[in-house]
Every structure is written in C-alpha cells, then in structure tokens.
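In the design runs reported in the main text, the only information available to the sequence generator was the tokenized backbone. The following block is the verbatim input for one such run; it is reproduced so that readers can re-run the procedure and compare outputs position by position.
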C-alpha cells in the first residue's frame, strides 16, 4: 500500500476507536457471561469450541441492547466476552498449575525413593 492509503486507514481506525468508551455495565455483563459459559460447559450437546462464539454473540447482543448497536456497544460486548473468557482461562490454568506441581512433586518423590 502506498503512504496515502496507510494514512487514511490509520485515521479511519483512530476515529473508530475514539468512539469506544468502556462502560460500567461490563461489571454486570462479564459475570453473567461467565455463568452462561459455565452452564454451556456443563451442557453435553454444546461443543467446547462453540462456547467462545456463543459468549461473544451474547456479549455483543447484551451490550447492544444496553448501550445501543453502535461501535461503542459492539466493542463493549466484545470486551466483555474477552474479559469473561480470559478470567475463566486464568482461573483454569492456575488451578491446573497447582495440580501439575503436585503431580510432579509426587513423581519426583517416587523416583528418589527408588534410587
């Protein structure tokens, strides 16, 4: 792309992102999405890969109804879904890390007993 096109795209993106203001309503939407995600995870007919997309769609719809279907409303829905998914992943990986450390410790103890 030439320089002019790059500048135009940069200005357009800056204008779009300037419209986005993180709303306080995310404090309600994020936990709600986490609960919905938990329920979907326990639903046998819903595949794991679909949960992320369902949460994204639900977040955008919820924010759209409360903030309006504008760039700001849609962006807040995406941010809410990202926050819910990231929080769940951080919890899950921290929990698994503790379990993995215990397993590694037990294996090391067993190996040291055999020596």
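Verbatim output:
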């Amino acid at each position: 792309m030439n320089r002019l096109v790059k500048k135009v795209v940069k200005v357009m993106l800056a204008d779009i992102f300037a419209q986005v203001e993180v709303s306080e309503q995310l404090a309600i939407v994020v936990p709600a999405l986490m609960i919905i995600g938990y329920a979907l995870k326990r639903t046998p007919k819903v595949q794991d890969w679909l949960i992320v997309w369902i949460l994204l769609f639900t977040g955008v719809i919820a924010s759209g109804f409360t903030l309006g279907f504008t760039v700001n409303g849609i962006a807040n829905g995406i941010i809410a879904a990202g926050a819910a998914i990231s929080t769940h992943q951080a919890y899950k990986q921290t929990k698994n890390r503790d379990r993995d450390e215990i397993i590694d410790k037990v294996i090391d103890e067993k190996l040291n007993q055999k020596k």
